[in-house]
Structures are given as C-alpha cells and as structure tokens.
Amino acid sequence: MATKRTSISDIAKELNLAVSTVSRALSGHSRISEATSKRVWKLAEKLNYQPNHLAAALRKGRSNTLGVIVPHIDGHFFALVIKGVEAVANKAGYNVMLCQSNEDYVHEQKNIETLMNAQVDGVLVSLARTTHDFKHFEKVRKRDIPLVFFDRILDGVNVSAVVLDDYQGGYQSVQHLLEQGCRRIAHFGGPQHLNIYKNRYAGYCQALHDHGVPFDQELVVFGDMTLADGMRSMTELLQLPQRPDAVFSASDFSAVGALQVLKQHQLRIPQDIALTGFSNETFASFTEPMLTSVDQRCEEMGGAAVRLLLEMVQERPTQLSPRKILLQPQLVVRESSRCRQE
Amino acid sequence: MATKRTSISDIAKELNLAVSTVSRALSGHSRISEATSKRVWKLAEKLNYQPNHLAAALRKGRSNTLGVIVPHIDGHFFALVIKGVEAVANKAGYNVMLCQSNEDYVHEQKNIETLMNAQVDGVLVSLARTTHDFKHFEKVRKRDIPLVFFDRILDGVNVSAVVLDDYQGGYQSVQHLLEQGCRRIAHFGGPQHLNIYKNRYAGYCQALHDHGVPFDQELVVFGDMTLADGMRSMTELLQLPQRPDAVFSASDFSAVGALQVLKQHQLRIPQDIALTGFSNETFASFTEPMLTSVDQRCEEMGGAAVRLLLEMVQERPTQLSPRKILLQPQLVVRESSRCRQE
DNA sequence: CTGAAAGCGCTAACAG
DNA sequence: CTGTTAGCGCTTTCAG
To answer: Which protein residues have their Cβ less than 7 angstroms from some atom of strand D?
Structure first.
C-alpha cells in the first residue's frame, strides 16, 4: 500500500555514504567527486527520490513559496495577472500560494497571517477596495519579508510596486474621444483613495485641459464601478439639462451598465453618446456595440511583479530602495466610440 | 531590523515551563491546567507568537496544504470554484496551492510533481482538455494521498469526484426550447472524451426523444467551444436547406459566436432562432439579447469538492470506496430564448 | 573530497 | 497535570 518516501538517509545507507555527502551531491555542490555524484543520482532516480521540501525549508528558513493576495479572482484582470505570476514563479522554482481578500480589509489582514504562517519567502499584494491603511503590512516588513504591490497600491506609501500607467490610460481614452468629435465628455470614477482610479481621473482632467475643453464638475460621477452603479450614474447624467456626448468610464462593468441604460432610452451609441471602458474585459467584445476599452497588460504585470519580488528575495539588502515599475496601457478602440459622425 | 520570530521555546523559557507544556497549552490540549494555559496564551499574545507551521508539518508529516489543479483560471467557472474551495479550506485551517495546467497534459504532469514536492495533504483536479490518460495520477495514489476530481473527469475511471449533472443541464435546456415551440433544435457540442460535453449531448438527445422530436444528425456540430468556433458552426448550420429554429450550445462562448453571426444575417433572436448557452458566464447578461444559460453552481462545487477531500484527508482508510457527488444545474432563462412567439 | 554532529521548531510517546 | 526525550529530513559548520 502506501509506499514510504525514500529519503536522503536511505540513499546514504544503501551507498555507504554520509547523509551530508548525499545531500551535497544532490544539491549540485562543487566539492564532490564526479564518481560519487553519479552513483547518488543514479540511485536517487531508481528509488524515485523526492526531496522533502518542508524539511529543507525548516532548516534553511526559506520555503520556496511566494504568497499572492488579490481582491478577487473572477473578472479577467486578476486571473491573467496570476497566470503571469505563476508562469514566472514556477520557472524560477517557486510555488505560489493564492489568497483572495474578497475586497475586504479584515479578510486581507487574515490573509497576511495565513501567508506568514506558511512562511512564504515573499508577498505580492493588490489591495482590497476597503483597505485604507497599512498596519497589517508592518508585520511583514518587521520580519524583513520582501513585499511588492501591484496595480492597487496605497497612495503616498513608499514601497516597491508594479502598476499600470493609469494616468496615460485615462488621457488616451479622453484624447481619443475628443478626436472623435466629442466635447461634453463625462467620467465615471472609482474610489479616489485608490491610485488607479485617482490616476484615471487625473488623466481625464489633463486631457481635457490640454485640448482646451473646460472641465465641468457635474459631468463627473463617482461610484463603486459595478454594473448597477454604472446604470445609476448614467441615469443621473441623462437628467442634466445638457446631456454629455461621451462617457469615459473607469471600469468596463459600469460602462456596460451605462450602455444598458442608454439603450433603454433609445439613444444610439456612439452617435448620440460615445462610450469607453477600462480593463478590456473578455466581454468587451461581446456587447453591442463592442466596447472600446484600455488593455492593462495583465500577464506582463504579473510577470514583472514576481521578477521584482524574486530579485528582492534573492539578494539580501531588501530595504534599500523601493522600486517602481510603470507599464504602458493600450487603448483598444471598438465600435462604441469609433467613426463618430457628427 | 528583522525581528526574530518568537518560538515555543522562548515562551517556555520565559515562563519556566517545558516546551511540551507550552505546545499543549497552545494547541488546546485538555490535560492542562486552566492557570498555565492562561499564562501561556497571554505571553504568546504579548510576544506576538506565530506558530511555525513548517516545523509542525515536518513533525506531523502533514502540511495542512491542499493542492488544486485547474485547466485555467480565466473565465468565471474555475474562478468561482476556486473561491468556493478557498473559503471552505481556509475555514478548516488549510492553505491552498493553486496550479494551472493551461489545458496541457504535460503541464499537468509537472503540476503534480510540484504539488507532491510541496507535500500537500490532498489534491483536487479538473482535467486539462488534452489529458487522455491517468498515468501521472498513479504516483499520487501510490503515496496514498487523497485525490478528488471535479467537473472534468476521465470517463470510466473509478475515482472520487464532484460533478455537475450535465445531462440534466442539457435535458432542461432542450426541454425549455421545446416548450417555447422550437422543433428543429441544433446542438454545438465539445470534445466528446470529456464527460461534461458527452453528458450535455446525451441530455440533448434524450430530451428530443422523450418529446417525440426526431434526432437529426446534421443539426449537431462539434467543435472546441470558442467564440470563433461558434461562428463557424453557426455559419455552417445556416447553409442547411432547412435551417434550425434553435441552438443549444454547450458553451456560452460559442453561443455568443452564433449570436454574432445571426445578427450579421439579420436574423432575430429568439423569434427566428432561439439560443441557449452553458455556464452562465458573467457576460451572459451583457449580450443583446441576454443569453439563456445553465448555471453550474460553481462555488458549491468547489465547496463540495474540498469537503469531500478533507473527509478523505482526515479519516484514514482512503482507498475504500470512491465517492461521487452530483450537483444539480439551474437553467437561467433570459431573453435569447424567452417568450417565443410563433 | 567526505564524515560526524548539531539543530531548524515542533509534537508525541513515555515517565513521573 | 507537567517534564524529559527523541526525532521529522534536511543543511551546514567544523574536522578530518
């Protein structure tokens, strides 16, 4: 029945060697004779030896596991980021332990506990929407465990991070709408304590400014970026004496909400109101009209984040200087904003 | 700088107790005095003691980690399943290690290696599309590590598994279409070596049969269930001398493909051709018309799968009798098939 | 180049 | 109820 795993000491016994010798041979140490090394490897293979990582981890104080905390995993952004993370991590010989905070601050704290208990060698985090402070991460830093944030970071805190240039994403979206002839461009914004939403908004403002279009406060609606929220915001905008001729939404979900409301009101897209979203979700090309959106280079982000983390894990002097990586977004133009005829 | 973790022995020293006593107190052992227990807990709290799980795992031979292998993580089905898995696993004090096979057999084998090395206590698997045999799982069984499959299982192999009653899903979809007055109902089917597609197809056939509608081979098109594939299949069907009046697609993606083709051909949905998909993807309510689909109870599936796995992990006699759990699907009727007028 | 021995932090007999 | 002791399997000095 259950076959006992073969251990280093089994091999050592069989070969009349010391465990230390076998250990060294197996871990490709230099100061070992070609001959013994061969013998060890051959027997290891034959006995189907599998190293006990737990033991090694305990001894070395490193687990070869990285922890990742994301707000959630549904919706393709984080899914793709994780794909990127896994690919790079596995290639480098690391395992990945995944936690979801469910957009909840308290849950996020628990996740940190979990990962610390699992002795991960480094942590990758994208903040929950409800996270406003940094207390729980102090613990990580105290233990001197490398920490890298991605996408959603807390503003004004000096940490290593990989983020999309959301400002550019916003800027390009609005510039594109302006080029299509739109002048009253509205914005659906998210919680402003999160860098991503703040920057998208900033890009929006700057683009308007640079093109000499006056900023109008009543065209900006903040919300939580769900589909329902988008419906609410759009309904609100349609009640203005002079309605907008375009909407730049900071999320594809609320953009779809807007889209549904516009259809209910028999308004044509993009002729009456042009529409752009953010994230380039899978469904962006499933709606009608297809939704213009901003691609966030998800997999690249995941890859870049782990690479940064691994650098920190491998070379010691961690605290020296937090590094930031800025990824360039890509505007994907589709029907909902294209070829606008005046 | 890096604070050293406090260990059990630190606490023991401080309190003039034996490590074993402290250990027992901390793990809520019964045979310990109320008083010492209190003292231990208090100090542990004060020193912010965090148990070293690796050490415990090494000692106990169990890692308190479960491994999960999924084909991929994008697309909401697996995302939600994983959410369910995590919720239940974490509540039971287990960590989850996630691997993606990328729908690739070879990659799946590597994932198994990875998880075995990480010493997981149990493995949860949903097969890659390209997996046709079971060799790599033998290793898991040899080691007597509990193994539970979910959703995608290999046909005819006797293992524990949690699956959706895909047959029912197919049956209900077709029955619903029949009730709407459709008679020439087509089917987009997936790779038939996978249980899920095979059963959806079987449900389709049986429903037709039970309602006295003759089966017509030319109305069944097999493919790989992508959006492009749906477009191809639909185009093919439209070339028939007598076109179908409904399509039951085994995937929402190919259903959307069909939907796009139908629109290009100026056909009305559901009046000219009714349409139903499978999986109830997020975007099912984003299309126009909204897509009728079958909900797969994703989170329940994840939860049920871990619970089954944990039972096996906790009580020893593993090999006794593989258990199967069958979840009932739920038809979600939306515009693409509703209130059909003849 | 190889061996002996110590110990990572925890648990589980076995004794009191 | 508490203490003593022995290891889980591996890496890593320190000696040869």
So the answer is: A 5, 7-9, 19-20, 23-24, 26-27, 51-52, 55-56, 58-60; B 16-21, 24, 30-37, 55, 58-59, 61
Give the residue carrying structure tokens 């699956």.
B163
- Calculate the angstrom distance between C1' of D8 and CA of A277: 55
Same fold yes or no, A64-163+298-325 and A166-296? yes
- Residue B9 Cβ under 7 A from any strand C atom: yes
pLDDT in tens, A56-110: 999 998 888 999 999 998 878 999 999 999 999 988 888 899 899 988 899 899 8
> Does A288 lie at the interface with B, CB-CB under 8 angstroms?
yes
Cβ <8 Å between B58 and A58: yes
In 3D space, the residue among A190, A210, A212, A211 whose CA is nearest the CA of residue A201 turns out to be A190
Q: Kindly give the pairing relationship between strand A185-189 and strand A220-222.
A: parallel
Pick from A316-320, B95-99, B179-183, B219-223: least confident: A316-320
Establish if A116 touches chain B: CB-CB under 8 angstroms: yes
Put the strands of the sheet holding A185-189 in their side by side order: A220-222, A185-189, A246-249, A274-276
Amino acid letter, A291:
L
- Give residue B231's Cα distance to chain centre: 27
Angle (deg, nearest 10), helices B19-26 and B8-15: 110
Which CATH fold would you assign to the domain B166-296?
Rossmann fold (3.40.50)
CATH of B64-163+298-325, picked from 3.40.50.2300, 3.30.70.100, 2.60.40.10, 1.20.1250.20, is 3.40.50.2300
Closest residue in B to A73 (Cα–Cα): B79
Note the pTM of the prediction, 2 decimals: 0.84
Amino acid at B80: L
Please indicate whether residue A162 or residue B141 has the higher confidence score (pLDDT).
Answer: A162
According to the model, what pLDDT value does residue B340 have? 52
Q: pLDDT per residue over B279-305, tens digit each?
A: 999 899 988 899 999 999 999 999 999
- H or E segment and range at residue B293: strand B293-295
What is the rounded distance in angstroms from the CA atom of residue A263 to the CA atom of residue B236?
31
Contacts of B289 (CB under 8 A, 6+ apart): B269, B270, B334, B335, B336
Q: Quick check: B100 contacting A, CB < 8 Å?
A: yes
pLDDT score recorded for residue A319:
55
- The CATH number for A8-51, chosen from 2.40.128.280, 3.40.50.2300, 1.10.260.40, 3.30.930.10, is 1.10.260.40
For residue A62 the two structure tokens come to 């490193």
**Nearby residues of B66 by Cβ (< 8 Å), 6 or more positions away:** B85, B89, B94, B95, B96, B97, B120, B121, B122, B123, B124, B306, B309, B313
Give the distance, in angstroms, between residue A144 CA and nucleotide C1 C1': 37
- A72 — contact with chain B (CB < 8 Å)? yes
Q: What single-letter amino acid sits at A79?
A: A
SS3 B256: helix
B 114-173: CB within 7 Å of strand C? none
Question: Quick one: which residue's CA is nearest to C5's C1'?
Answer: A20
Query: Does the CB of B33 fall within 7 Å of any strand C atom?
Result: no
- What is the tens place of the pLDDT at every residue in A121-178? 999 999 988 888 888 888 788 778 899 999 988 777 778 999 999 999 999 999 999 9
